[in-house]
Structures are given as structure tokens and as C-alpha cells.
From TrEMBL:
Protein name: histidine kinase
Cellular location(s): Membrane
Taxonomy, superkingdom: Bacteria
Bilayer-spanning residue ranges: 1-20
Catalysis: reaction(s): ATP + protein L-histidine = ADP + protein N-phospho-L-histidine
Primary location group: membrane
The EC number(s) this enzyme carries: 2.7.13.3
This protein's UniProt keywords: ATP-binding, Kinase, Membrane, Nucleotide-binding, Phosphoprotein, Transferase, Transmembrane, Transmembrane helix, Two-component regulatory system
Organism: Ammoniphilus resinae
GO MF annotations, alphabetized: kinase activity
Histidine kinase domain boundaries: 41-263
Phylogenetic classification of the source organism: Bacteria, Bacillati, Bacillota, Bacilli, Bacillales
Length: 267
């Protein structure tokens, strides 16, 4: 009888502590939800005044550009750069706040990733040319994947942009896309390799954290927000994939993404 009573007592105590801890979590969860909503709402509200500021600066530049002194023109240029940086930051914050609350869901689609990769390399070419960086793309003729088209483009853009930003003039950046078939399932591999600054080993895990930057000043000068890789990681996780970095300081970095892409019928 004593043993049965003991087991009963233990069961009730365990159930009570589980119940109490669940109840205690409710206000904490609510407070997190409120914080997420606040960041999402604030970012959303900031977009309109920022786009008005941007177009007003364009108007001033177009209408009065010739009459401005060199100094005023320089101030105007700085203002435009800062507005652009802030717009980028606000849009990154909004993406992360929405991803925290599970919104938006991925829009799964079946598409060829190769034309998008060619287009992304084309857009990155201007920045690469300005630093005399050689940009190489290796892909099969076509690469049909199932995933969120816009998000996968955003992921490649973030990795390419970083590779060019953190590679000194005269370097090289390779974007490689491949697809590997393992039984019924295929895996998409995206590799972005650069010959840039590299990332010290102790920082390699933390670069995927929000606002983590190895060198704050350098990132800011490059127009970085410190949120790019956090967004990249979220996109990869949402596709049930993995992202890894291997890097040797002074020699370069390689970011490797693996994403399972299912046969069309299974999506
Ligand atoms: P940022 O906007 O600062 O580039 P990210 O989240 O994209 O933010 O990257 C975080 C940090 O990781 C960067 O500030 C930089 O220090 C480092 N980093 C990212 N990609 C590279 C790369 N290809 N080479 C060297 N450092 C990199």
C-alpha cells in the first residue's frame, strides 16, 4: 500500500509541477508575442515615411541638383545613402519579425532556378566590376527545384552580396548550383566561394545571429545591417535544409547550402 501511495503521490507531484510550469510560461510567451508584433508593426509603419523621404530626395536632386554647392550635393548623397541603408534595415527587420511569428508561410512552387541565378549574377556584376572581382557561375543547363522562388533568390543574393562585400579588389567569387538525386528525393546544393577576408573560427557560428558582425565598422561602411545571414538561415531552415561555412582568415570563405527538394507530386 505504501509503495502504491508513494507512486500516486509522485505522479500527482509531477503532474502539478508540469501544469504549474506551463501556466508560468503563458505570460512569458504573451510578452514575446507582443514584442514580435511591436517590431513587425513598427517596421511596417516606418516603410511609408522612408519611401516618401527617398522620393523627396530624388526630387531635390533632379530639380535643384545644378544649383547646389559641392558641399550640399555631398550632404544630399549621404542622406540618400542613409535612407537606403535604413530602408534595407527596416525591410530585414520586418522579414525576421514575420518569420518569428510563422508568417509568411513559404510559397512553394516548382521552377527552374538557373535563369534566376543568371539574373542575380547580372545584378551583382556592377558591384563586382567596381572592385575588379571576377564573378563565376557554374550551373547545369536547367535545375528544377521545389521551394519558395523569391526566398531562394533572396538567399543566393545575400550570400553573393556578402562574398563581394568582404572580398578585396582583384579577388574571385564562385556561385555553384547542383542537384543531387538520392532515391526519390533530390537535394539542391548552393555554394558561394570567395577569396576574401575570411572569418575567424571563433566567429563562424555566431555570424548567423542577428546583428552579429565580425567587424562592425567594416560592415557598416559596406551598407550591411548584420541581419543578412540571420535571414539566410531562416530561409534555409524553412526549407528544412542546412547552411554551413568553412573559412580561413586571409584566404576566403565558402558558404554551403543543402536543401531537400521533393518530386513535384509530393509537394
Ligand atoms: P552584414 O550586413 O554585416 O553583412 P550578415 O548577417 O550578412 O551581416 O553577416 C554577418 C557578418 O558575417 C558580417 O558582418 C561579416 O563580418 C561576416 N561575413 C559574412 N559573409 C562573409 C564573407 N563572405 N566573408 C567574410 N566575412 C563575412
Amino acid at each position: 500500500i505504501l509503495v502504491i501511495l508513494g507512486i500516486l503521490f509522485l505522479g500527482v507531484a509531477l503532474w502539478l509541477s508540469y501544469f504549474m510550469s506551463k501556466r508560468a510560461m503563458i505570460p512569458i510567451r504573451k510578452s514575446f508575442d507582443r514584442q514580435r508584433e511591436f517590431v513587425a508593426d513598427a517596421s511596417h509603419e516606418l516603410r511609408t515615411p522612408l519611401s516618401i523621404l527617398n522620393s523627396s530626395l530624388d526630387v531635390v536632386e533632379m530639380e535643384d541638383g545644378d544649383q547646389l554647392s559641392d558641399y550640399s550635393r555631398k550632404v544630399l548623397r549621404n542622406m540618400k545613402d542613409e535612407v537606403k541603408r535604413m530602408t534595407h534595415l527596416v525591410s530585414d527587420l520586418l522579414t525576421l519579425a514575420r518569420s518569428d511569428s510563422g508568417v509568411p508561410e513559404l510559397k512553394l512552387d516548382s521552377f527552374d532556378l538557373v535563369p534566376s541565378a543568371i539574373q542575380l549574377v547580372g545584378s551583382a556584376q556592377t558591384l563586382a566590376n567596381s572592385k575588379e572581382i571576377k564573378l563565376n557561375l557554374q550551373t547545369p543547363e536547367s535545375l528544377i527545384v521545389n521551394g519558395d522562388h523569391d526566398r531562394l533568390k533572396q538567399l543566393i543574393y545575400i550570400l553573393l552580396d556578402n562574398a563581394i562585400k568582404y572580398t578585396p579588389s582583384g579577388g574571385e567569387v564562385d556561385l555553384t548550383l547542383t542537384k543531387e538525386q538520392i532515391e526519390k528525393q533530390s537535394a539542391l546544393h548552393i555554394t558561394v566561394k570567395d577569396t576574401g577576408l575570411g572569418i575567424p573560427e571563433e566567429d563562424q557560428e555566431r555570424i548567423f545571429d542577428r546583428f552579429y558582425r565580425v567587424d562592425k565598422n567594416r560592415s557598416r561602411q559596406m551598407g550591411g545591417t548584420g541581419l543578412g545571414l540571420a535571414i539566410a538561415k531562416w530561409i534555409v531552415n524553412a526549407h528544412h535544409g542546412t547552411i554551413e561555412v568553412s573559412s580561413i582568415p586571409g584566404e576566403g570563405s565558402t558558404f554551403s547550402v543543402n536543401i531537400p527538394v521533393y518530386d513535384v507530386e509530393e509537394v
